[in-house]
Specification:
With 314 residues, this protein is of the alpha/beta class. Helix content is 36%, strand content 20%. The chain has 11 helices and 13 strands. It has helices at residues 29-39, 58-69, 93-99, 103-116, 137-140, 144-160, 182-185, 214-228, 248-263, 278-281, 292-300; strands at 10-16, 20-21, 26-27, 45-49, 73-78, 120-124, 166-170, 194-201, 234-241, 267-274, 276-277, 283-284, 306-307. The strands form 3 sheets. An 8-stranded parallel beta barrel has the order 1-4-5-6-7-8-9-10, surrounded by 4 helices. A two-stranded antiparallel sheet has the order 2-3. The radius of gyration is 19 Å and the shape is globular.
């Protein structure tokens, strides 16, 4: 299920530092409001990351309802793992899910989604194609066929539970030399509503990285995904740039004003990743560092193609 698209319409969204406080398990919508004030425009999509066991809780429903009260559509990124409602078996993680070993839990979260009842983006097992993630196929020892089977199995359960409000987002990372080909893990048109990509310009922060513009980061992966799933709307679900090795304000200016409009016509949602990860990744992804970066983003988002609500769609 995905909505009819208006020409050149791109929904704005964001994950921003402080939106979720893991130590206290508290959602702070004021953090996303502050992000909106900074960019000078309201966003459509509030992006949150949740452990998948947390999807089966009253608190999770409360979070979604809070997001809705601020007129945002939630996007939930959740990765699978074993826990007491999805117990470890002798099979790989995705084979266990495909076999039905986690069905009681999956039916519970289906009921949670149905109870919420309003549009919800579900980004299951994002970046599953790279070995560094604990839920990746490589890390869990799963085959591509098992991943596809698990995705379809969860989708089928939600259909059986009459869940009609979920937008399914298939979202690998941009291709790397060690990533799994998209065509091997794509669940199929009937099981996916949006296709997405995560990607970053790491500049000179890593021994293996160099400065790349937005098109360098996403271009070839976008082309592959559009060919694999023609007609599906594309979401840039995480993106950002460091300031190490190049011009960060210029990077955003070129991306928003030229590259996205001209090079990426199927991109219909753009989700900022706004967090300082200097300690963990030697990169600060925040939009106000350095301060002049924010002016470039504000100027670029004045383009009417960047919209703040779903009313732009039929």
């Amino acid at each position: 299920m995905y909505l009819t698209r208006a020409t050149h319409t791109i929904y704005l969204g964001a994950w921003t530092e402080g939106l979720w406080e893991p130590k206290t398990n508290v959602l702070h919508p004021e953090a996303l409001q502050l992000f909106e004030e900074h960019i000078g425009k309201k966003v459509t999509i509030a992006h949150i990351y949740r452990g998948w066991h947390e999807l089966d809780s009253d608190n999770f429903i409360t979070e979604l309802q809070t997001i809705d009260r601020y007129s945002w559509v939630p996007m939930v990124s959740a990765n699978p793992y074993y826990f007491d409602q999805c117990k470890h078996t002798r099979y790989s993680l995705y084979k266990s899910i495909e076999r039905g070993d986690c069905d009681a839990f999956l039916r519970n979260i289906s009921i949670r989604f149905r109870t919420y009842g309003k549009p919800l983006f579900f980004r299951f097992a994002w970046e599953m194609n790279i070995p560094s993630n604990e839920w990746s196929l490589q890390y869990t020892g799963s085959t591509a066929q098992e991943f596809v089977g698990a995705w379809r199995h969860i989708h089928t359960i939600m259909n059986e539970e009459n869940v009609t409000n979920v937008q399914w987002v298939f979202c690998p990372q941009v291709n790397t030399p060690t990533s799994i080909a998209y065509e091997e893990i794509f669940p199929g048109d009937e099981y996916v509503d949006w296709v997405g990509l995560d990607g970053y310009n790491w500049g000179t922060t890593q021994s293996w990285s160099s400065w790349q513009n937005f098109s360098d980061v996403f271009g070839s992966s976008y082309d592959e995904l559009v060919k694999l799933a023609p007609g599906k709307p594309v979401m840039i679900a995480e993106f950002g740039t460091t300031d190490q090795g190049g011009d960060k304000p210029g990077w955003f200016s070129a991306a928003l004003n030229t590259q996205i409009p001209q090079r990426f016509p199927e991109v219909k949602a753009l989700i900022f990743y706004n967090e300082d990860r200097s300690q963990e990744e030697q990169s600060n992804w925040k939009i106000d560092s350095p301060p002049q970066t924010l002016k470039s983003i504000q100027q670029g988002l004045k383009d009417s193609r960047y919209v703040s609500d779903f009313s732009q769609y039929k």
